[in-house]
Design a protein that fits this description.
Blueprint (H helix, E strand, L loop, with lengths): L4 H7 L6 H15 L1 H9 L14 E2 L2 H4 L11 E4 L10 E4 L2 H15 L6 E6 L1 H6 L3 H13 L5 E2 L4 H13 L3 E6 L1 H8 L8 E5 L12 H12 L5 E4 L8 E3 L5 E2 L4 E7 L2 E5 L6 E7 L8 E11 L2 E7 L14
């Protein structure tokens, strides 16, 4: 089946009105994604006229159902990191090109051109489990940097230090992206990485005790001698990411939006500054489901997202969601 180039063109374009495109995308996915259609019918939300009326599929469905527009054959299959006994989320991806276009544009917008960087990745658990959307993204960016110094660095601090200093001699910007526990392991060595941009992707993976975002960043900043720590907010079920810089608030691309739902009335939404459940709209999920109700808590501040933690009964996940 051919791709829907009409919708794809709108998603990454500059002229589409967000609400209008969201409604159009809803009807496309309602028609072609069976589990989403059944869910929408079950809760009586089949003809939304505005953004707040669009049904959001619970993220847990990615563990229990095939969330995909069935008329398409998948190009990729991403699996979550599987830190619990309840199974790994599965995200069938019809087009690797769409995923690459999404994350590359977002990375360039918030982090910078990879061609000017040396990218060093500390993602041991993701490498071990396979089918990771994060590893796919970082591997793509490493190749895009077109520098032999850029690489995945697994349990080899000496190699990391050598590549860091070699990159500085080449006057390259150094980006170190890693899972939380690996960055903490590095921070405890007391080495100086003060000229690097540190990006943490969250997740202790059972290797360390959970801690607040402030505690995590404070330890990393002290240990690596950096002024701040950047965060990447992404998950297996999304093909787009958001990044936080010094203020700790996450910014999103034009094709992504956050709505904060009332935890006591999940079909209602809260005003800015109020804490509730995070609903994500990700237009890059064109061939799966773009409207996802997560198990995460947050609020909108200055048009940015502040992540507050998770619902008490939610699985611990490795996507930057530490209880605050």
């Amino acid at each position: 089946m051919q791709r829907n180039l009409h919708l794809e063109g709108k998603i990454f374009g500059e002229t589409a009105e967000f609400e209008e495109l969201a409604i159009e995308l809803f009807h496309f996915q309602f028609k072609h994604c069976e589990i989403y259609r059944l869910f929408a019918e079950k809760i009586g939300r089949t003809k939304p006229y505005k953004l707040s009326e669009i049904p959001f599929l619970p993220i847990s469905f990615f563990k229990t159902h095939h969330v995909s527009c069935s008329i398409y054959n998948e190009d990729l299959l991403f699996l979550s990191s599987g830190t619990t006994q309840t199974g790994r989320s599965r995200h069938p991806v019809f087009s690797s090109e769409i995923y690459e276009r999404s994350f590359e544009n977002i990375y360039r917008q918030f982090i910078g051109p990879p061609e000017e960087q040396v990218i060093l990745a500390l993602l041991p658990n993701y490498m071990e489990q396979g089918n990771s959307s994060l590893v796919y993204m970082v591997d793509f960016l490493i190749k895009k940097s077109d520098c032999l110094l850029s690489s995945f660095v697994l349990n080899n601090t000496e190699e990391l230090v050598q590549k860091y200093h070699a990159a500085l001699k080449l006057e390259k910007k150094v980006v170190i992206i890693g899972v939380s526990y690996a960055l903490l392991d590095l921070a405890e060595l007391g080495l100086d990485f003060s000229k690097a941009l540190i990006i943490e992707t969250g997740g202790m993976k059972g290797r360390r005790k959970e801690m607040t975002k402030e505690e995590l960043h404070s330890e990393i900043m002290t240990g690596l001698k950096v002024d701040f720590v950047c965060s990447e907010f992404g998950m297996t079920e999304l093909l787009s990411q958001s990044y936080s810089m010094k203020d700790g608030l996450f910014e999103m691309p034009n094709w992504m939006k956050i709505l904060i739902r009332d935890i006591n009335d999940p079909l209602s939404y809260l005003e800015n500054g109020k804490t509730g459940g995070i609903n994500v709209i990700d237009f890059a999920n064109i061939y799966s489901c773009s409207f996802i109700s997560t198990q995460d808590l947050g609020k909108i501040e200055n048009k940015k997202l502040k992540i507050m933690g998770r619902f008490d009964n939610a699985d611990i996940r490795g996507c930057n969601l530490l209880v605050q």
